[in-house]
Write a structure and sequence with these properties.
Blueprint: H1 3-18, H2 20-32, H3 37-41, E1 49-53, E2 74-79, E3 83-84, E4 88-89, E5 93-96, E6 105-109, E7 123-129, H4 138-148, E8 149-160, H5 175-183, H6 194-200, H7 212-220, H8 222-225, H9 235-244, E9 247-255, E10 259-266, H10 276-279, H11 284-287, H12 292-300
Parallel strand pairs: 1-2, 1-7, 2-6, 7-8
Antiparallel strand pairs: 3-4, 5-6, 8-10, 9-10
Length: about 300
């Protein structure tokens, strides 16, 4: 079989693995332009200047499910290296093109958890899609993002849901583990989860064309390429993570085929976030979730 035929066959297998309902949803979303309700309800959160970690991300574009780019006055960007497997070559400076109709933003080459070049409370909002799972120390990263956003500023966070992704055979990472990573100052050289990834990765859900050997080589060099998902999330675990990191959750929504979307804000230093409604097992966003792991929280009464 030719390499092109292999890629086509893998793509067919990937969509089949998502299930008929998710496939229909994906096709409908592309045709009609699915939008999260929280964007329309909180449009003002994205007016001003923002910082994106990772990206540029299609989900934030004018045709995406969370169209932040058309709203923002400007967006800067942080990428961990001057060459990544997602963006290719990256050049520091005023080079970040997030919307062809707007001036480029400033491109920083830096770790997501070490934004030393950016002063406190610089930005009106921070956005990030499918990046935090690649971080070995998510709480430390969220704390650094909170430092660079103004009081009252927003965080729009998108993470992969285990049920819809190639992580579906892996256990959800407990908050206690993430707290240990923070307290132990775990850095990006961490290899704790690499064995689990190699054992439980679902190639049928992986849209890339990696062979088993190619995937192993990538994971074993994760400190260089950052391809591994250190941690695995469902919707409630994301709420618990944001609450522990001191963000006040505004809204959450799970969205097929594999997204957990959370809008949060930075409170005043002395304020205590009130996230009780999002931490209950009977929370509305769990009831509305298309993912079985989230709905199982209701049955478990967690």
């Amino acid at each position: 079989m030719s390499s092109l035929a292999q890629r086509i066959w893998r793509r067919i297998g990937y969509h089949a693995s998502l299930g008929f309902t998710n496939l229909l949803f994906s096709l409908k979303a592309r045709a009609l332009g699915h939008r999260l309700r929280l964007v329309a309800a909180h449009r003002e959160a994205f007016v001003g200047r923002g910082l994106e970690i990772g990206g540029a991300s299609r989900i934030f574009s004018a045709s995406g499910a969370i169209p932040v780019y058309p709203i923002a006055h400007g967006i800067d960007n942080v990428t961990f290296s001057d060459r990544t497997r997602w963006e290719g070559r990256v050049e520091a400076g005023d080079t970040f093109v997030f919307d062809v109709g707007k001036p480029p933003g400033r491109q920083y080459i830096a770790e997501a958890g070490d934004l030393a070049a950016i002063p406190d409370e610089t930005y009106d909002f921070v956005i990030s899609s499918h990046m935090l799972e690649h971080s070995a120390n998510p709480i430390a990263v969220l704390n650094e993002w909170k430092r660079v956003v103004r009081t009252g500023g927003a965080l729009m966070l998108v993470l992969p849901h285990r049920d819809g992704s190639f992580d579906r055979f892996r256990p959800v990472t407990p908050l206690s583990h993430l707290i240990e990573d923070e307290r132990g100052r775990t850095d990006e050289s961490d290899t704790t989860h690499l064995g689990e990834i190699l054992q439980l990765h679902d190639f049928a859900r992986d849209p890339t064309s990696y062979s088993g050997r190619q995937f192993r080589a990538m994971i074993e060099e994760n400190a260089k390429n950052r391809g591994a998902h250190h941690h695995v999330f469902d919707a409630l675990s994301v709420a618990r993570l944001l609450d522990y990191a001191g963000w006040e959750i505004v809204e959450m929504e799970a969205m097929r085929p594999f997204n957990i979307c959370a809008l949060a804000r930075k409170t005043a230093p002395a304020a205590v976030p009130h996230n009780e409604a999002f931490l209950r097992g009977d929370a509305e966003y769990l009831r509305a979730s298309p993912f079985s792991t989230d709905r199982a929280q209701l049955r478990a009464g967690r």
